[in-house]
Design goal:
The protein is mostly helical and 169 residues long. The chain has one domain. The chain has nine helices and no strands. The chain has helices spanning 2-25, 30-47, 51-73, 79-92, 97-119, 125-128, 131-137, 146-156, 161-168. The longest helix is centred in the first third of the chain and has 24 residues, at 2-25. The protein is elongated, with a radius of gyration of 17 Å.
Length: 169
């Protein structure tokens, strides 16, 4: 029951919070990543995950951190996005790493194209009064890539190893 709650409620709630925060402020607070890490630690405990599998998940998360911070150093994503990517890979492990990365990248590309297109259109005055919408519409602003990372996790979650583990306990 606890594993199901973690995978079906806690993980999605933290991902929604990260995406929402990113849309509103172009930041993802560290406490959300810490929440994802802590929830994963609880998941490991309640599922009795074998040590080798824990190591594989930790390695996948570390690989995500290396890739994420490389993209951050190159200016492609924000630091919060890099950390969120690593946290999602911590949860997914290697079993779903490639699928998740491809889906999140495709969704990130669609999000980027959509925002670039919308930024070419004038912002209706009723929306301009909302600071977060005006910031999102600003052509100099970045892309809230946390939205794509969260959406990618939602798209793949029902096919993941953690979902199967949680549903069979």
């Amino acid at each position: 029951m606890a594993a199901e709650l973690l995978v079906l409620i806690v993980l999605p709630a933290l991902l929604v919070a990260a995406a929402g925060w990113d849309i509103a402020s172009f930041t993802i607070p560290n406490f959300l990543q810490l929440g994802l890490i802590g929830a994963f630690a609880v998941f490991v405990l309640v599922t009795g995950m074998p040590s080798a599998l824990i190591g594989a998940h930790l390695l996948a998360g570390f690989l995500g951190l290396v890739v994420g911070f490389t993209l951050f150093a190159l200016g492609y994503v924000g630091g919060g996005d890099a950390k969120l990517f690593a946290c999602v890979l911590l949860w997914l492990g290697f079993a779903n790493l490639v699928d998740y990365t491809l889906i999140a990248s495709a969704l990130g590309g669609l999000l980027t194209l959509a925002l670039l297109g919308l930024r070419q259109m004038p912002l209706p005055p009723s929306f301009a009064t909302q600071s977060w919408i005006a910031r999102l519409h600003d052509a100099k602003a970045g892309i809230p890539y946390g939205v794509a990372l969260a959406a990618g996790a939602f798209a793949i979650l029902p096919q993941t190893e953690i979902f199967r583990v949680a549903s069979t306990l």
